[in-house]
Amino acid sequence: MKTDVILVNSFTSNGAGGNPAGVVLNADTLSDAQKLSIAQAVGYSETAFVCRDDEADFEVSFFTTTGEVDFCGHATLAVFSTLFQEGIVAAGCYTQKTKAGLLAIVVEPTGHVIMDLQLPQKLGKFSYEAISDVIGIDSAILASTRLPIEIISTGLADLIIPVPMGYLDSIIPNDIAISDFCRTHDVVGFHVFELCDAESPLTASCRNFAPLVGISEESATGSATGALACYFAEHLPLDCHYVVEQGRAMGCTSMLTASVELNGSKISSVKVGGSASRIGTSIYSNVE
Prior knowledge:
Blueprint: E1 2-10, E2 19-24, H1 32-42, E3 47-51, E4 58-63, E5 68-69, H2 73-85, E6 92-98, E7 101-107, E8 113-116, E9 121-126, H3 128-135, H4 139-143, E10 149-153, E11 157-162, H5 175-185, E12 189-195, E13 204-210, E14 215-218, H6 222-235, E15 241-246, E16 254-263, E17 266-274, E18 276-285
């Protein structure tokens, strides 16, 4: 059998940049082994497989080159942008069933996609000293941000790490050290950010490192952006709407929007949005 894989750049900025994902429609007959084989052949950080579902509008599973993950924001954006562009869905509200739960999606008439994420789970904190050697920045420099280093999950557990302005692009990721840390502490990856000036239209610039799941660095990460929005809502005197860029250090700048809603001091919803551009289509053989 042959499988068509639609190739999509997610979280593009004016049609440029973004993070590539594969999308396989009508994937109901594919086994997990076949999905992994296809994801490995595609070679992107994630490939999404779309199936029918009795409970939701669609069931979507996500595979990296090393295995299945519970959720992927940029691949979700790729899926619903593709469904819209293919005429399978119109602008409106939909649900997708994932291993991270049943999540709502809004497709706007422009094709802009906004996805609901899981409500945040705070899973732990680390000292500046514990992280310093792993990312190669002195603990005193990290401490100068006066912001905590925390694990937050809105579908996947990410370690949120603040750095002062000017240090983000200088990070040279140590894949082995980051993988060892993530494996030990049950974390998917590091989401490192620097805040932008108040005059900037951006809230922050970010980098994401997840070598444990085969991603040395990713140019746009929806789930981590949701976690970061929750972090901002708790620790910074900002409004609840954020615009962040990611991928600048890779020469592939991506743009992501995020927002949270509060019920008193408690977060009641987390949303991440963006636009996507189709790159093309490839055909792969399924492995039995």
